[in-house]
């Protein structure tokens, strides 16, 4: 992470919580939580000078922000272009524009060669992973690339959206144990991710994909556990048709896997009727075929 952004992010958090420089620094008459001078905090916020991690931790405590939340905001501050590129990848995938995905992969690979910035390496691998998954031309993911992604994900203390997207694209290439362990680690941090709605939604979609991964591999224990996690993640009194619909689809697939065909058929028929009402007859037909093809 670029430490020159740390001060800017701290200022945004401080101002959002309506703390003055003096209050954040503990630099006022009668203070019992003095960390450093308000002048030093101002210089830190403007990127003029650095301060120690110990002092940053104290400043965060003064404004009521945990260090993990601070790191999350720093990562989000640094990732706008990365997120935009990932969104492009999603659109290209929906439209099956493999030539566009290859074009962007080559641009990112070239950016990495010129700058040696690892963020371009990870982004290039995300695009490449999809090309390899679709058997496009001669693209393939090598063992050293899988190891590099695994080591990187393990080393990052707080996953941002970029790490979640990278993991999502590499699910087909990681070991079953890695997929399950990473998924559970993220689920165990639900309370943290609930603070950031856009991040929580990426976590929900990731757990959905992991549950489907284990269903396709007929790994009942792992699939069942992640299905429960998935259900808990979307539990909310707020109407959320998209996530509920997606969950029912995964639940239907799970029921088919464990031999409960009649229960699965009821779920898929309900989903098919819903799609018909929404004028998506082709999707409805595809869903009905899931049961008949089993």
Automatic annotation (TrEMBL):
It comes from the Bacteria. InterPro entries: Cro/C1-type_HTH, HTH-type_regulator_Rgg, Lambda_DNA-bd_dom_sf, Transcription_activator_Rgg_C. One of its GO terms (molecular function) is DNA binding. Residues 110-287 form the HTH-type transcriptional regulator Rgg C-terminal domain. SUPFAM superfamilies: lambda repressor-like DNA-binding domains. This is Rgg/GadR/MutR family transcriptional regulator. It comes from Lactococcus allomyrinae.
